[in-house]
Design the sequence.
């Protein structure tokens, strides 16, 4: 697929699968030469510390779904143990390592609403209420970082950064107006914020 010039994204969840896939991507780069590939790994949930650094080095995009962190956080440690849990859903570590982290929903498995994903990435409060300060709290990120993962980073992942992912001249006028300013309210309230208007290419397609 890489030798044919295709844009490749592969699903991998566990640390062994992610390590294997990073090795495959590295082999493809070595075999077929350098170019602007923007390889993706969908999910990239449980990573080794070595893998976290390799994403940026290889130019591989971790395409993650933050809501899964507050869902899986209720039981994941029982499945993979206390050591591997330290680098599970490692949003902060990936960003700090320079990876082009992107966010999505994995709908219908998780809610489609990106505000719930932003809430999850910023608070990491599990659905059972057992982690009020956040599950693996050192991996929390800021509201601005989470929003960028849903917008500009996704545009980059799809080679559309010249027209999507930001509000600026010559870009498509795709945006929403929210009931609250998510940069000013407490992060725990973000999941309650409502979309009041949706504009696509300059035209209102939804008004509450």
Sequence:
């Amino acid at each position: 697929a890489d030798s044919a010039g295709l844009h490749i994204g592969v699903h991998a969840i566990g640390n062994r699968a992610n390590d294997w896939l990073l090795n495959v991507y590295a082999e493809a780069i070595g075999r077929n030469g350098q170019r602007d590939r923007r390889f993706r790994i969908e999910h990239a949930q449980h990573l080794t510390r070595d893998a976290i650094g390799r994403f940026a080095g290889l130019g591989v995009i971790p395409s993650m779904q933050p809501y899964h962190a507050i869902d899986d956080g209720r039981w994941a440690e029982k499945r993979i143990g206390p050591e591997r849990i330290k680098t599970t859903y490692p949003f902060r570590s990936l960003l700090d390592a320079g990876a082009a982290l992107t966010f999505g929903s994995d709908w219908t498995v998780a809610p489609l609403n990106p505000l719930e994903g932003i809430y999850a990435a910023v608070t990491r409060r599990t659905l059972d209420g057992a982690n009020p300060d956040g599950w693996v709290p050192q991996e929390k990120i800021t509201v601005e970082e989470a929003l960028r993962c849903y917008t500009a980073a996704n545009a980059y992942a799809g080679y559309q950064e010249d027209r999507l992912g930001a509000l600026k001249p010559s870009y498509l006028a795709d945006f929403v107006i929210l009931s609250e300013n998510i940069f000013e309210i407490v992060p725990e309230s973000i999941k309650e914020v409502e979309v009041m208007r949706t504009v696509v290419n300059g035209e209102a397609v939804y008004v509450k």
Summary: The chain has one domain: 9-164. The longest strand covers residues 195-200. DSSP finds eight helices and seven strands in the chain. Helices lie at 15-32, 49-58, 67-72, 76-84, 91-96, 114-123, 143-150, 152-157.
